Amino acid sequence: AMKINQDTVLRGKKVTLVPYTAAHVPRYHEWMQSEELQRLTASEPLSLEQEHQMQRSWRDDADKCTFIVLDSGRWPGQAEENSMVGDVNLFLTNTEDPTLAEIEIMIAEPSCRGRGFGKEATLLMMAYGVRKLGITKFEAKIGQENEASICMFKKLHFKEVAVSSIFQEVTLRLDVSDQERQWLLEQTNHVEEKSYAELKQPAGLLDT
């Protein structure tokens, strides 16, 4: 099962990726009430209880890997719920090919958009997928009107491979050659991998 990252923290300059836990669900649920985010993520609004079920499936399903994106400037130090800016996911969509993953990034906090948070979170997740999960091909499916996201993936060397007029989405793809792998690891060589359990302890003391 995809519990591989349940104690993993990936700390970058702007963002820190932490496992998606039950404690994150209320804030996440609040975000997903936004019609704009529902449209951008092509998702239906769920009840809080359904969102909790979803979080458990993210933790337990073997074909999904997810991190919550926190603002590195705020956490550790502030409560995680107040430091959350979005999430980043990998789906292993093809049972025949475990080296292919679909990647999704959402920067839900409007004040955090356009600041490079999404780019760094995506790079961290890609490097994690390549190093820990054996991923060699990434796909991203993005709504045609979401130009900022399409543009970001192109900066990360993804190429547009398909456009679906029915779903109004663009599919972008990156094959991780040795050269791309080298680039990806260079882009993320500042990242520290830490234990979530250890980092969480002191933060709890600060919240009192």
Automatic annotation (TrEMBL):
Domain N-acetyltransferase: 15-159
Keywords: Acyltransferase, Transferase
Enzyme Commission code: 2.3.1.308
MF terms in GO: tubulin N-terminal-methionine acetyltransferase activity
Function: N-acetyltransferase that mediates the acetylation of the N-terminal residues of alpha- and beta-tubulin.
Species lineage: Eukaryota, Metazoa, Chordata, Craniata, Vertebrata
Name the UniProt record assigns to this protein: Alpha/beta-tubulin-N-acetyltransferase 9
Domain of life: Eukaryota
Swiss-Prot/TrEMBL catalytic activity: N-terminal L-methionyl-[tubulin] + acetyl-CoA = N-terminal N(alpha)-acetyl-L-methionyl-[tubulin] + CoA + H(+)
Family named by the database record: Belongs to the acetyltransferase family. GNAT subfamily.
The keyword Kinase appears for this protein: no
